[in-house]
Design goal:
Blueprint lengths: L16 E6 L6 H12 L1 E5 L18 H6 L2 E2 L12 H17 L3 E6 L2 H9 L1 E2 L6 H14 L1 H11 L1 H4 L7 H14 L3 H5 L3 E2 L5 E7 L3 H18 L1 H9 L15 H8 L5 H24 L9 E4 L10 H16 L2
Helix pairs in contact: 1-14, 3-4, 5-6, 5-8, 6-8, 10-13, 11-12, 12-13
Length: about 325
Amino acid sequence: MCGSLDQSNLKNKKLPWAVLVAGPTCSGKSYLSLKIAQALNGTIINADAMQCYKDLRIITTRPSIEDEASAPHRLYGVLPWDQTGNAGWWREQALSELEQVSSQKRLPILCGGTGMYFHSLIHGIALIPEPSADARAEARRSIETKGSPFVYELLSQVDPQTAQTLNPTDSQRVARAWEVWLSTGKGLKFWQQEAHLPGAAYNFIVIRLAPERALLKEAVAERFTAMVDEGAVEEVANFLKADPPVQAPLRRALGVPEFVAYLSGEITLVEAIDNAVRNTQRYIKRQETWFSNRVLAPSVQVCIFNSRIDKNLKFSESFIEKSISFINSFIDV
């Protein structure tokens, strides 16, 4: 389902164009983005939170070295594991990349499944003060020594408005909320209601993949089996040698908690894979809900495909051609 071009509906014809390829995990975003980039002189800008990190290339399913060499890729593997890349950080990096790519007369193609990254770029983001180093260290120390639920209870007492939006066991987000309160004396929800940085000055064309969940379930199972064959378990074992704390973002990457449990002898490898598939399906459901209820661009600039895109799947070439044609209908105006 694709919108149709009506020049009267374009808010600002003078703004540069950028493409968003969005959708749930395992839907084929990377492959579709690569094909669009090759056809339309594009540069792919990563919008997946975990693929920003240098570590765990296999388990975060970053594009292969060969794919990265066949078209320009930006913001992949740029963060060390001990740095937190939140939406504010990504937005700043993405804006810089958009400017550079546009100045090179190339088409920016933002590819990923982290909805809040897209939202921060398109609609802007709250201007939250950077927590002090002492506050950040104290928040991390509290999470490590006392656990996320304990810190969550502390947060609930001083900042219930933020706490009610969080999962007590989500150590990364609890630590983030706690460090902001420790540093500023005000909660995240307070700052989110204050001044906002504006959205990017671009016209966005959205290609959203929304395959049936049954198709994704099968693809996810195949992906985790392939990951193990490619060395994902060994990759996680090497990552653990650095002794990353529980709130390190990559500790939450899909498949990492399950393989950590396997490596510690708590479960078998088969159970680890089954658990990873099950938890990934839950994450996919949350992604689908998020994208279904958000406006990323005017409807005439949105194209939705209810299919996976993969070089081995029938009809994928047809969807790729339709995507390229749809994008061309705007950038050729």
